[in-house]
Structures are given as structure tokens and as C-alpha cells.
């Protein structure tokens, strides 16, 4: 039985669940539901002070600027960065990783330099590096995982070489939920002068995170997976790196001076934020951070750990069900991937949908991992602060119905 004391009771904070009380939403790894406070913060901006930022010398614009920059400060505090100059607003994890590849990658790497990724990674942390590799001739290497989806970190010493310039990998696997232990990896990378990029899309929303303790050079995440709006994300990078990196997009706001034959760049972080930024989205992300910070990320993790433990136990009781991933709540975030013998994952998802249960089925944007596991797809449930053990009981009942229909 799950540690009941750890469980939160927060459905009432989420208008979508209040309006749809019979819905069981188990797809938070795709995107998280939005708490009322986020929706209200966005509405407040559009209703009462929807001016542009950094340019108007009038009250409304100053208010918008203060709210936008205030959101940056909330992000800084939330991930424990040393300075708000290290927090760049982007449109999401994908954009953040691409920014590093296009700016740092193109300016700092040369032909035959090496980048180490992992087989667990999302396409967003593979394809930008493939594009870079094609562009400049650098090489990609992959850390493998074992049959339980744990990274084989002992391979690192073989993979690292004097040509290694970057290790980029996910903190938590979106497909299997594995929590990757990164401290030793970061130390080893730094010992040979390589940088470390952490794709924290699936960790920032689910556990306490401190970039100074992680000692990473870059870290990327998306606002929408943390209950914020879509269209906003964050790139954290160490200030000394951002100072050396050229801008990727040119335009308004990112310049200090523009002449017909040359331009100079604005201070950090604005050097990397060309054009009108996603103002409402940043303000909404700030409200999401307030919401999660008030709960406390240790409590969020404890809640999701309890749900994962409960779900792993219940799922293991179903005949013909195979779990991919560690199948140990201590080693995984609130993501569980599985298959049911004799039923395609897409059929599981469609039939559960008829029971008003939303889960994801497919390759989860992790085709190399699916190839490695020799499966085309899995069914995946993923939890958020609003889920309950009743949701998992409904899932189990739904899966029993699926088995009945397929006579397995
Ligand atoms: N990295 C990881 C680890 C992810 O899980 C995702 C999205 C991304 C990067 C990309 O984030 P985006 O906000 O830029 O799109 N993961 C998922 C998922 O698991 N299901 O839908 C999206």
C-alpha cells in the first residue's frame, strides 16, 4: 500500500479536473494540467496590463516588464542558479537544446570532436546534435542502458576521450521514468574539460533540483510540463559560457547598438532573447513555480513516489503485463511504461480512452530506445500532483476490461 501520508489532495486546484470530475489524466509527462493560479495569472496579464516589455516608459509596460523579469527571478530561485543572467527564456526544452547546439556547438566545436548522449534520450536531445554533427563533422556516441532501462554508466570511461567536448543527457527518461545519477558523470566530464548539458524536462517538475549541486553547464526544461503555459521554456547556462556564446537569433531587444555594417549585443540574458518574448507565458510559468514552491518539491516527489509504488504493485498483479524501466519507485520518477501481451499499446490507449482514462502510447519520441529494447511502442502512464490512488484503481479496472475484450 502506498505511504498514504505522502499523498496530496489537489484535484480542486485544477479547473480541468473540477469541470471533468470523471477524467483520469495519466499523461503528465506529455504536458501537465494547469492549476487555477496559472490560468488566472495569464488572464490578469491579458486583461489588465498586456503591454510589451523593456520598451515602454509608461506604467503598463513597466508593470509587464516587472512581471516578466520577476518570473525569471522565480525560475532562478526554483533551480538555485547563482544569477538571473544565467536564465534564458526560450519556447521550451527543444528550443533550449537547439540554442546550445547552434550557439555553443557551432562556435566551440570542431570536426572530430565528440559528444556523448544516451540511448534513453528524447529526440529533442538527439536530433539537434545530429544536425550539428552533419554541419561541422563532430561525432556522436551513446551510453547504453541495461534491460531495466538503467544507464550503463560504467561505459563512460571507455566512451570518454580527449576529444569529448560535451555530455548531453536526460535527467529522467520520459519513456521509462529512470532517474539518472549524474554527479559522478559530471565530475568525470569536467575532469577532462568537457561540458555537461542536462535535459531536465522530466525532472524539474517532479523533484527538488539545484543546478549548483548538479554543477551542470547547461540545463533545459519546459514550462508546460510544470503546469505553466505552452510556448515557454528555460535554458540555464553558466554565465562564463553565455558570455562567450554568440547569439543565434538577431532582432529587437538582443542588441546594444545597431549600425548599417555591424551591431553589438545586449547584456545577458537578453542577448539570447530576440524580439517580443513570450510575456504571458513567462508570467504564467512564474505562477506555476509559486504554486509548486508552495507545495514544496520534496512533497511533490514523495506524492509521486507513493503513487508510483502503488501503481507498480497493482500493475505487477496483471497477467501478461511487462514493465519497461527499473520497476522500483526509488529509482524512477512518476512514469511507468508497459506492454500487455496480445494487445498493441495503441489499442490499450484507445480502449482506456473510452473509460475516460488518458494515457500515452507509442515510441514517446525515443525511437533509438525502442530499437534498443526491441519493441515498437509501449503504453505509458505518468503522474502529476493531482493524481490519486483512485486514478490508479480506475486504470487497473480499465486494463482488466482491455484484457477481457482481447480475451488475454
Ligand atoms: N526532453 C524530454 C526528456 C522530454 O520528455 C520532452 C517532451 C522533451 C525533451 C521536449 O519537450 P518540449 O516541451 O520542447 O516538447 N516529452 C514528451 C513526452 O514524453 N510526451 O510528449 C512530450
What are the SSEs and their pairings?
Elements: H1 15-19, E1 24-25, H2 36-48, H3 59-79, E2 87-90, H4 93-108, E3 114-118, H5 127-136, E4 139-143, H6 156-159, E5 164-170, H7 183-191, E6 195-199, H8 211-214, E7 218-222, E8 233-237, H9 239-244, E9 255-258, E10 263-265, H10 279-295, H11 297-316, E11 321-324, E12 335-340, H12 345-354, E13 357-358, E14 360-362, H13 367-373, E15 378-382, H14 389-405
Parallel strand pairs: 1-13, 3-4, 3-5, 5-6, 6-7
Antiparallel strand pairs: 2-8, 7-8, 9-10, 11-12, 12-15, 14-15
Helix pairs in contact: 2-10, 3-10, 4-5, 11-14, 12-14
Ligand 7TS binds next to helix 4.
Which keywords apply here?
Aspartate Aminotransferase, domain 2; binds ligand 7TS; 408 residues; Aspartate Aminotransferase, domain 1; seven-stranded mixed β-sheet; 39% helix; four-stranded antiparallel β-sheet; 15 strands; alpha/beta
Overview of this protein structure:
With 408 residues, the chain is an alpha/beta fold. The chain folds into 2 domains: 2-30 and 296-406, Aspartate Aminotransferase, domain 1, CATH 3.90.1150.10; 39-293, 3-Layer(aba) Sandwich (Aspartate Aminotransferase, domain 2), CATH 3.40.640.10. It contains 14 helices and 15 strands. The chain has helices at 15-19, 36-48, 59-79, 93-108, 127-136, 156-159, 183-191, 211-214, 239-244, 279-295, 297-316, 345-354, 367-373, 389-405, and strands spanning 24-25, 87-90, 114-118, 139-143, 164-170, 195-199, 218-222, 233-237, 255-258, 263-265, 321-324, 335-340, 357-358, 360-362, 378-382. The strands form 4 sheets. It has a 7-stranded mixed beta sheet, sandwiched between helices. Strands 11-12-15-14 form a 4-stranded antiparallel beta sheet, covered by helices on one side. It is globular. It starts with 14 loop residues before the first helix and ends with a helix. Ligand 7TS binds at residues 29-30, 92-94, 122, 124-125, 170, 174, 199, 201-202, 222, 360, 364-365.
